[in-house]
Write a sequence for this structure.
């Protein structure tokens, strides 16, 4: 099977997965117990008459047959028309824009740093197998990987915010004095100060996983026959590492990297809530509690799942390019 056929097959698989995600999205939120209109009105501590109640049901499409609602949901999600947010009445996409950008900045910073540092330290641990460096890196990775992230966040806040007063304990932007317009440099610097602690928390929580995964992948390939042959030819160890070891050890890492970047928009609910950071994680929490905001939840669920599908598609393409056996198998 050629590369074009391989890509075409992956595109078909991805389209089927997108349809499945939309269907599951619709079924889950359609089968939730309770009346979403009544819950929304109760959350506002208000009452409405029957006429207004029926109007709200019509606005949200709840008065239509199930199959009509499904077709409407299918078309709306495919065109990214998520409707209006239940609380403010604003378009859902407008509500998500700022939190999505904030999360991409936060998660992108943490993920890029953890991937680079984790892969580098994982290679070192593999090459120093059973030594002091390997023991320290492996033990530290197991500790950071197993400790709950909210505990890591508390320790980070306690040390750097409460004890040292280096960074703010929470929030995402300072309360500027009324009428004060900060310069671009002041604004960027202030935003960076609020990003450091949640990004550092996510880095500590994820870097251990990258170290362990990279170490395992490198150890699996470092003693293969082609690596031994390359060394027997007199190639430099750096050439052996980059050309033979990392190339073949990279396949499992590709999937993990793709899925890590797919989580950028989904956000980190616990971390963003702990630091009161205005991102997708905190937005998701507010969409769940105290009253479910169904249009917003549907949009978050769909976009997060869509990014995972796209990430897997890209990973599959890279698989086929790096290892032709996958393409022709």
């Amino acid at each position: 099977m050629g590369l074009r056929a391989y890509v075409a097959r992956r595109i078909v698989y991805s389209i089927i997965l997108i349809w499945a995600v939309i269907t599951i999205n619709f079924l889950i939120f359609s089968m939730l117990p309770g009346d979403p209109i009544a819950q929304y009105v109760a959350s506002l501590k208000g009452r409405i008459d029957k006429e207004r109640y029926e109007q709200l049901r019509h606005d949200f499409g709840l008065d239509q047959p199930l199959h009509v609602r499904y077709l409407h949901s299918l078309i709306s999600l495919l065109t990214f028309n998520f409707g209006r947010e239940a609380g403010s009445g604003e378009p859902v996409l407008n509500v998500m824009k700022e939190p999505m950008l904030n999360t991409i900045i936060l998660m992108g910073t943490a993920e890029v740093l953890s991937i680079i540092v984790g892969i580098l330290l994982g290679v070192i641990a593999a090459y120093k197998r059973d030594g002091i460096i390997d023991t320290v890196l492996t033990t530290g990775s197991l500790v950071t990987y197993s400790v709950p992230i909210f505990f890591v966040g508390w320790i980070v806040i306690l040390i750097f915010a409460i004890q040292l007063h280096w960074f703010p304990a929470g929030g995402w932007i300072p309360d500027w004095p009324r009428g004060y317009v900060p310069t671009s440099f002041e604004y960027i610097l202030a935003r960076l100060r609020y990003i450091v602690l949640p990004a550092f928390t996510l880095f500590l929580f994820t870097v251990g996983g990258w170290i362990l995964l990279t170490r395992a992948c490198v150890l699996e390939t470092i003693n293969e026959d082609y690596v031994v042959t390359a060394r027997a030819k007199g190639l430099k160890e750096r050439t052996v590492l980059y050309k033979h070891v990392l190339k073949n050890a990279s396949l499992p890492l590709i999937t993990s990297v793709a899925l890590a970047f797919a989580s950028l928009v989904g956000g980190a609910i616990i971390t963003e809530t702990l630091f009161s950071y205005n991102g997708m994680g905190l937005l998701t929490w507010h969409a769940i509690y105290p009253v479910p905001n169904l249009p917003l939840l549907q949009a978050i669920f769909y976009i997060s799942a869509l990014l995972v599908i796209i990430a897997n598609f890209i990973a599959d393409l890279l698989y086929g390019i790096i290892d032709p056996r996958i393409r022709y198998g």
About this structure: The chain has two domains: 3-78, 93-289. Residues 93-289 form a domain with the MetI-like fold fold (CATH 1.10.3720.10). The longest helix spans residues 184-221.
